[in-house]
């Protein structure tokens, strides 16, 4: 079953690559089939086997020989690990499926925000639909907890975006709102706290080399994603640790 979760993660990861490429360009996810972005040749199924095709073709298009981005196998392998982690943690259960889907949702947000500095409404909407399905089917978190989490989690970032528009976008606020639906209250605050901590650390590390990266601002979405992921799996442990340190 572990191997199956990895394989399923690879196949879903291959679809996520389509989502990541087409959604910001407003293209349909289902039609037409994949083609090479350089020579626009439609690709055959054996060009599209996750990870394997990339290495078999030595990272080049089979038609025009132009390099294929490393992003494709990287997204597929990362998603495979996310799905494997979900299965290892929760076994064969609906909680594992929702955890895997949450991981994929965070991965899509991370890559698009990294490339385009955009947290797309469509991606947020898909995340919200999944989170509501999770509440309905698994009863977690409670509706009260989810709605307070969404209201306060989103609210805090909307407020920051309003006061400091250069540093925070509305997309960040919408993503935090959806994070609240997934994590509930007060877990969403733990995730926002972790995201800020990671973002600030990365900013300081990059700031040390300011001359080389002048004008490069960090997108906040990937840090929100990391915070959400850690809190989803390890919030109990984090809270215990926090209280031990504080008391
Ligand atoms: Zn090509």
Automatic annotation (TrEMBL):
Pfam families (alphabetical): A24_N_bact, Peptidase_A24
Localization annotation: Cell membrane
GO cellular component terms, A-Z: plasma membrane
Keyword vocabulary terms for this entry: Cell membrane, Membrane, Methyltransferase, Transferase, Transmembrane, Transmembrane helix
Domain of life: Bacteria
InterPro entries named in the record: Prepilin_IV_endopep_pep, Prepilin_pept_A24_N, Prepilin_peptidase/N-MTase
Keyword Transferase assigned: yes
Domain Prepilin peptidase A24 N-terminal: 7-87
Bilayer topology: Multi-pass membrane protein
Residue span, Prepilin type IV endopeptidase peptidase domain: 101-203
Annotated transmembrane regions: 6-23, 87-107, 119-137, 144-164, 184-206, 218-235
An annotated Gene Ontology molecular function: aspartic-type endopeptidase activity
GO terms under biological process: methylation; signal peptide processing
Keyword Cell membrane carried by entry: yes
Family stated for the protein in its record: Belongs to the peptidase A24 family.
Official protein name in the record: Leader peptidase (Prepilin peptidase) / N-methyltransferase
Species this chain originates from: Carboxydocella sporoproducens DSM 16521
Taxonomic path: Bacteria, Bacillati, Bacillota, Clostridia, Eubacteriales
């Amino acid at each position: 079953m572990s191997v199956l979760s990895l394989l399923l993660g690879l196949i879903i990861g291959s679809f996520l690559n389509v989502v990541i490429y087409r959604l910001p360009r407003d293209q349909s996810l289902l039609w037409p089939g994949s083609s090479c972005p350089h020579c626009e040749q439609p690709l055959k199924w054996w060009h599209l086997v996750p990870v394997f095709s990339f290495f078999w073709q030595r990272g080049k298009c089979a038609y025009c020989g132009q390099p294929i981005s490393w992003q494709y196998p990287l997204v597929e392998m990362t998603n495979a690990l996310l799905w494997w982690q979900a299965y290892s943690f929760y076994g064969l259960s609906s909680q594992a499926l929702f955890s895997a889907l949450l991981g994929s949702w965070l991965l899509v947000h991370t890559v698009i925000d990294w490339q385009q500095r955009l947290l797309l409404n469509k991606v947020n909407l898909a995340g919200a639909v999944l989170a509501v399905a999770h509440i309905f089917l698994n009863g977690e978190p409670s509706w009260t907890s989810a709605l307070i989490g969404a209201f306060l989690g989103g609210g805090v970032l909307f407020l920051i975006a309003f006061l400091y528009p250069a540093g925070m976008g509305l997309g960040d606020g919408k993503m935090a709102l959806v994070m609240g639906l997934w994590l509930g209250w007060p877990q969403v605050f733990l995730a926002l706290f972790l995201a800020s901590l990671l973002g600030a650390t990365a900013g300081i590390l990059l700031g040390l080399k300011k001359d080389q990266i002048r004008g490069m601002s960090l997108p906040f979405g990937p840090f929100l994603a990391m915070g959400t992921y850690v809190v989803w799996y390890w919030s109990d442990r984090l809270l215990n640790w926090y209280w031990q340190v504080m008391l």
